[in-house]
Amino acid sequence: MNSMRYSILIALLFILVACLFAGSLLIGPAAIGLNASIAALFHGEGEMVTLVMREVRLPRAILGALVGGALGLSGAALQGLLRNPLAEPGLIGTSSAAALGAVITIQTGLSAAFALALPLAALAGALISVGLILLLAGPRGTILTLILAGIGLSALATAFTSLVLNLSPNPFAASEIMFWMMGSLADRSMLHVQLALPFMVLGAAIMARAGGGLKALTLGEDAATSMGVNVTRLRILLVVATASLVGAATAVAGAIGFVGLIVPHLLRRAVGANPTRLLWASALGGAAVILAADIAVRIIAPDRDLKLGVLTALVGAPFFLNLILRTRRETA
Amino acid sequence: MNALLALENISIFRGPCPVVSGVTLQVGAGEFVGLLGPNGAGKTTLMRGVLGLVPASGRNSLMEHTPEARARMAAFLPQEREIAWPMPAQDVVALGRMAHPQASARKNRQAIENAIERMGLGALRERAATQLSGGEKARVLIARALAQEAPLLIADEPTAGLDPAAQIAVMDVFRAHAGEGGAVLASLHDLGLAARHCTRLVLLLKGQIVANGTPQEVLTEENLARVFHLRAHVEWHASGVIFQPLSVIDA
Amino acid sequence: MLGFVRRSKRIIAGLALVAGLALPAAADQPQRVVSINLCTDLLAMQLAAPGQLVSVSNLAADPHSSVMAEEAAAYRANYGLAEEVFLLKPDLVLAGEYTARATTSLLERLGVPVVKFAPATSLDDIPAHLERMGAALGREAEAQAMIEAFNADRAALAPTGDELRPLAAMYYANGYSTGLNTLSGKVLDAAGFRNVAAEAGLLRGGNLPLEVLIMAAPDMVIRGNRYPGQSRSEDILDHPALARLGASPAAPILADRDWICGTPRILEVVSRLTEARSALEKIR
Q1: pTM of the predicted protein model
Q2: Residue A52 and residue C214: Cβ atoms within 8 Å?
Q3: pLDDT (tens digit, 9 = 90+) per residue, A71-108?
Q4: Shortest CB distance from A48 goes to which of C215, C228, C235?
Q5: Which pLDDT band holds residue A140 (cuts at 50, 70, 90)?
Q6: Chains A and C touch (3+ CB pairs under 8 A)
Q7: Distance from CA of B105 to the nearest CA of A (A)
Q8: I need a surface site. Which of A251, B205, C91, C272 has the fewest CB within 10 A?
Q9: pLDDT of residue A331
Q10: Whole-angstrom Cα distance, residue B229 to residue B251?
Q11: Mutual orientation of helices B105-118 and B134-147 as an angle, nearest 10°?
Q12: How far apart are CA A254 and CA A313, in angstroms?
């Protein structure tokens, strides 16, 4: 795998993301022509069109790219860290735990008093769940223990989320269980971009610093340590970065599953299975997947707020089952 | 003798139980030291302790350096030939260069090519390492350790699971590495192979060194009976030793 | 139509399929009436004779949902569960047409007469509901008086026809809005407003995408009230784009409770909206 091919791959993925980002900006229930959209977005021509482009569609497209990037990146990081192709924030309960953290701050009114409490609590939820997974399944959990621990944690976090929402005095809260389980980008604003962005930048920056050590882990922790990699530090940094990314994404968009599974799986061969390179390819791939899914939900059911997780699970679950079959064949 | 590794009174505990106790050992340039002992004697633990992978008490010359510097002094081949992802073989070999973050691209390429050539991996370099046979995987991982260009090579049962030709090939590579001014410390179960290829043997029993010397000094009838409960046929020739275990002595 | 059937000892449980029988005489006034639906609560509280109404739903006493929360406090609250309602020994249960179906069908099987009211979807439904409620409670005369008062008030508020008919939108949690075939839609229309949701093709209630709302550039956005506790659904009411959209000083804050049910009190909403429209027209 040479650097040239990797650069080309990154460039292609970047172009794909850029196209989908533009598509996300141009598609919406209000029929606005291409020229009018562009004029409004860049030059602020047309008061109402500008409002739609800059305050409704732009934040949605930005969040789509950010949330997808965060999920792809954290999926690749978790897989590299656990050396397990089935590790994924949704499957191992990280997203559900982040959603629980977010729901608790919303329902206690903490997020209304202090806006950053929302992503911070989601981050804390994600952190606790990754910590529990590492405790339950061990640093290199077998596929079975990892998935079982993940099912247990997800079920617990989802149950608590439902409980909190059902006990809420707010009549809308109970109907939001679906959002927290399946995720959506509908009606998000620049406020949500401002909430999520700092944590995602932090997560990505940590990944950029620590990600290099990830490829050494391919040979196991002892070999990696003997090559000068500080595995303990690497593990802590990656867990914090993952929690930061998943927490921020979940706080603003709910739990969207399978992105962190499908994307690294699809791109692994293309990056020569190098876990460090897979991080950045998956970040772009994840952004493309969420942007595409968000365009699809607006086309399939324009007036229904179809949840993003519905689409990602429809595509992702068969992948997951296929991966299980393949791992069974390999270990048999 | 230029010691690449000097251990003094090394002890390692797992909980309250000593797994290695009071090991004093030196490995000098040019030596290929075979670490022998029954299962559970503490061979793996001793090697991991030497590399700082488990905490150990006593003096260890490697531990006087930072982990980064240590990586340029000693390379490690764990017993499990783990390769988690289907990386091309040459990329696995290149991982050894992570110990040299400051080295130039040219220097890195040279080290990788040398390792690939020495291990005869030219034809396999583009193949996914996970799809190689056990012997091929072992060669790729040894090449990775060689690419690390550390004088001391520590290998945990490098010949386990390999066919006879592959075992001999591995021993030859280690011998050559020692011959070029490096040193090898390898745990081995095949006493015949150890006797024939190692320059020195260390016999470990219950975490303690019970014998340390040339193969001829170490593989005595008395030591074999005491450590392995074995009777063996041993012939010392000018061309090398022929060693064949014959029967188990009942305790 | 379903008529009121007085509970009779001769009607045994399980044979209560007696809907459609003739309306009873006023002399047969039911004595223990239980209402399990917010809108029937409100109508019944306004029409029932003292002591006739035994219990109203718990929502009736909730100030967020009910315009008669204080009055409702005088009645025993029920949670609309069949067992609880049955133990109150009602001789008439008032229920919504589409809500709590399991409860009403079980009560009917137990021989309890149930009268169901469909939700009002227009101002014209209100006199009809009053008339039915009056008949069910045996309070026809009171109902008739209330109908006449309602019709008179309504006529006084009727638009003159020379309004500018500014454009308004109702916007609630989750981007919910209502079109013309709803009570709130009809109220908006009666107050002389055009309705963004109706013009966007929404007949009943449904999701009005924020960008469609913005592109319509309404003169006034009527936002729903906030409920206690927090929810993601209500986030949209804080959306910066909505804040910058036609923040008319005249826009009244209308709580959901104000126009959730078709009772004569809805005319207060018509009147407040009419004032808001006049204020808007003055600004122009």
Answers
A1: 0.85
A2: yes
A3: 999 999 999 988 888 888 988 899 999 999 999 998 88
A4: C215
A5: low
A6: yes
A7: 12
A8: C272
A9: 61
A10: 7
A11: 140
A12: 14
